[in-house]
Inverse folding.
């Protein structure tokens, strides 16, 4: 795996440039747009939030560009292009990195100086990625409160099918709220998970929509609650990659972990919607 983080400053420099500034008499341009993610039946939803492209020309790192931006390729002729899908780690703009669970998209392109080439890549998960079935849940097969999560707070959650509220307008999503009388809600996975420790990468992917903040973390050993991230309100459906590595690998480590989400009432009529939850490890 390439050592990407040393290039964070390069991203800031390149992303501030536009095509006019990058124009060169000896350059072609490459644009990656309409990006997709392919998933198998055991890998959960193909929803994604790829925001950047980290790219190499003939195995030489050339920079980081926002998705859809023109990327310069100096010279002409056939070149090997290697592109990594970049995300906002924990949804934070200042912590962008290539998502290590997506395979690089590699192809050859014959370039002609002055021309722009548009490619619509489909990324896939790396073959070493593990998707614990105890967490993968798009809630479409759930009825009532039947799901891979259980309520352990003051309020129950609901599996809803309102086309005006669910992710993508189809299927089902998980919904919970709070009241003044019962101001907290907490859910967790029904099955304890044996997760890799020692710094092994662990991510929780999910789609969400909410009008107030809520927390995500792990419960280690059934008693040790460890917060990983507080997710801020989003009035439209959003996708986030929550890194759980530190929460899982912090000493002391345990044989089993549970994923939790919880919220305390902050607005007059709180609403939190979740969908396409999945855990990805190695």
């Amino acid at each position: 795996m390439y050592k990407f983080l040393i290039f964070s400053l390069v991203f800031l420099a390149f992303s501030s440039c536009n095509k006019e500034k990058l124009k060169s008499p000896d350059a072609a341009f490459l644009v990656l747009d309409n990006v997709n993610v392919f998933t198998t039946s055991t890998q959960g939803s193909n929803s994604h939030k790829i925001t950047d492209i980290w790219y190499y020309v003939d195995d030489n790192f050339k920079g980081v560009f926002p998705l859809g931006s023109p990327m310069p390729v100096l010279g002409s002729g056939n070149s090997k292009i290697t592109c990594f899908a970049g995300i906002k780690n924990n949804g934070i703009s200042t912590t962008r990195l290539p998502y290590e669970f997506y395979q690089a998209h590699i192809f050859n392109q014959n370039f002609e100086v002055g021309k722009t080439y548009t490619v619509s890549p489909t990324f896939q998960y790396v073959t070493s990625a593990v998707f614990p079935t105890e967490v993968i849940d798009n809630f479409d097969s759930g009825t009532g409160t039947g799901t891979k999560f259980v309520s352990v707070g003051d309020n129950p959650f609901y599996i809803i099918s309102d086309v005006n509220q669910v992710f993508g307008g189809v299927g089902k999503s998980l919904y919970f709220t709070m009241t003044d009388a019962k101001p907290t809600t907490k859910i967790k996975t029904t099955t304890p998970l044996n997760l890799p420790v020692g710094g092994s990468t662990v991510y929780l992917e999910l789609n969400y929509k909410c009008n107030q903040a809520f927390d995500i973390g792990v419960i280690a050993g059934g008693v040790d609650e460890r917060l990983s991230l507080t997710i801020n309100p989003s009035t439209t459906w959003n996708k986030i990659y929550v890194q759980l590595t530190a929460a899982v690998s912090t000493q002391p480590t345990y044989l089993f972990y549970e994923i939790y989400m919880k919220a305390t009432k902050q607005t007059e009529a709180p609403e939190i919607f979740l969908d396409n939850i999945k855990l990805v490890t190695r």
About this structure: The CA atoms of residues 37 and 123 lie 5 Å apart. The domain at 149-280 is CATH 2.60.120.260 (Jelly Rolls).
